[in-house]
Protein: Hydroxyethylthiazole kinase
Organism: Carnobacterium iners
Amino acid sequence: MINKKDIKNQMIQAVKTVKQTNPMAGSITNSVTINFVANAQLAVGGSAAMVYLPDEGEFLAKAAGATYINTGTFLPIYEETLLRTAKVIRSLGKPWVLDPVAIGIGSLRNQLLQEFKEYKPNIIRGNASEIIALAGQWGLDGGEKVSNTRGVDSTDSVSAAKDAAVALAKWTGGAVAVSGETDLITDGSIIARSSGGSHFMEKITGAGCSLGGVVAIYATATSPFIAALTATAVYNIAGKRAGDKVDGPASFQIQFLDELYKATADDIANNPFELTEV
Amino acid sequence: MINKKDIKNQMIQAVKTVKQTNPMAGSITNSVTINFVANAQLAVGGSAAMVYLPDEGEFLAKAAGATYINTGTFLPIYEETLLRTAKVIRSLGKPWVLDPVAIGIGSLRNQLLQEFKEYKPNIIRGNASEIIALAGQWGLDGGEKVSNTRGVDSTDSVSAAKDAAVALAKWTGGAVAVSGETDLITDGSIIARSSGGSHFMEKITGAGCSLGGVVAIYATATSPFIAALTATAVYNIAGKRAGDKVDGPASFQIQFLDELYKATADDIANNPFELTEV
Amino acid sequence: MINKKDIKNQMIQAVKTVKQTNPMAGSITNSVTINFVANAQLAVGGSAAMVYLPDEGEFLAKAAGATYINTGTFLPIYEETLLRTAKVIRSLGKPWVLDPVAIGIGSLRNQLLQEFKEYKPNIIRGNASEIIALAGQWGLDGGEKVSNTRGVDSTDSVSAAKDAAVALAKWTGGAVAVSGETDLITDGSIIARSSGGSHFMEKITGAGCSLGGVVAIYATATSPFIAALTATAVYNIAGKRAGDKVDGPASFQIQFLDELYKATADDIANNPFELTEV
């Protein structure tokens, strides 16, 4: 039986551990939102480090508590960097977060996303179309081989990605977070639906990317499922609070980062979420 | 005879179409201001996607309604990416915007800017020195082979770039936008002068780059001349409104993005501009 | 004997010269904080230009009044770009600022930081762990070969880096700035300790990087020691003023950039600092 109180206690513990220990997550992430990712990681109490080169990726994989790989923009060197980094992470059994941004665009991105199937990212975060497309590429239930992603946008609803999310979580043995109006987080047997946020999150670039980076921070301190749920919860409470204060997207981003910083462990655990069994 | 009312109606239609259809423009743009470009594109109602690799540029050229190429920072792979992307755009007859940032710096940038002459970008946006230098490099009237650009800054006035802008527009058959205190937009036969903005625009990096990105968003929905004029107008009205509220450049940037988001079709069409024939 | 009044007058002169002449500094810097670096340089009255390619680095080395090299994120092309740029700077006797971010991570970064020993950067800026690690790598007093850096964070106190800073300044004949709660600036014979700032500076990414970029702006107009002290002083006064106004890190960054812009020459020279002889 699912024990909601126990899950909330784990969330509270994760938030407190991060605020007390300032854990570092390493990232290989896109250049569009790289600054937002780092500042969001700092705001929740973590430390950020971003690299491009293969041996630097390996170094961070060893030195950091968790690693975040976001496929938003590719450089030629990524062919070497991403696999070498994933290999080290996997050999050490450390947690890592995959954000399959722009899946479907370009041969290198798709080749590497295919190879990542065997590296089993502990947490996969994406919008609904990305989650469906990744499950499809990996030949899992609920996936579709033809991606409905449009550039970096989703054209599917979160609920349409439920089966794909569950299948991905079962494959990796970790967790999957699908971002949308109501977010879905699953470890393959439990589904959490977290609500809150703001319509402004779609009017700024990087809400999803920075969420992935924050998941990696919490993944240094707790299980994949709790990390994904806690990060989603702090995004929803901070997004809600920020959205209530502003009337434009840039002001929203500023207030949102401030609210990420201010949210307490109790605030985060008490943000509304519902649990069901798969 | 120039019909100002007709032009304003076309501007209103372009703004409304963008707000209703959320069109995507793909970008290959510099890393300094890439986040600002994306957020400005989102603020006016568009969608953003940025890439570096050749096949990804080709993919976006096909998938996006328009493409934005900004030469602010070059990576080695751009030698392949920019030409392959421009070829696809041209073969499909889709609109694209060229922002010849830092023209005069480095052999690869100058080689590619030279090759772009034959790809005839539908809209060229730059400061006065960049427009004069590009016309000079392309051997057109009003150009000067020795660039007066200083890094990314202009040392020429907008009016000094009029002949170069007209010659570039006649060559491409599209439009040219010269940014400065009063902005000049021309399709080679009509000249629009758009005013507004704020002195703070020169105190933040990327006012020009993000304008180029917004031109690409409007170019998905209207003619090159109307796209350039509409984007310039929304920058001038948002810049004016933001500048009136703040006393520092970072606060300006936040308010400016908020005002980009808030500006209505009528606000934009009613921002002051004057029309003359060449 | 140290004449504090004379130093303050030189600071005032440097600030005024920058505000009046809008000098350009070229930068090769990391992609995480590149936008913040540029906006900070603009806020104090300078002009920014960022590049990646070798001949572009050489171009800027010649065209700019000073150059800023920050090793935060490496691309493969940097192997060629950084040395060719440093060679041109050195041959022209122009000032340059080295920010050895992430020293200890990756073979290319460490190889180039080693080679930079002979290029004698006029100003070295870093956190305490970076300064100790660089002195260690260069075999100077006060250094430690095994870096205590953790990603991009310091684990040492500023005072622990005093000997390393003095040794580096003596080696280069320039100045060294160690950032921390109380900042230490030395030319190898005088030590200035500058105070102010805000705890929020550690909660945003790029406070150190952008300080390095601002040091380069002042280095176009004054000596290495005065440039480092002036930049540190404007960071401390702007950080103090911004921190007093806000309760979150993103609001802090906006106010901080605004205060950088507003700080007068007198404000900056009057920010508290203490002078001692080595």
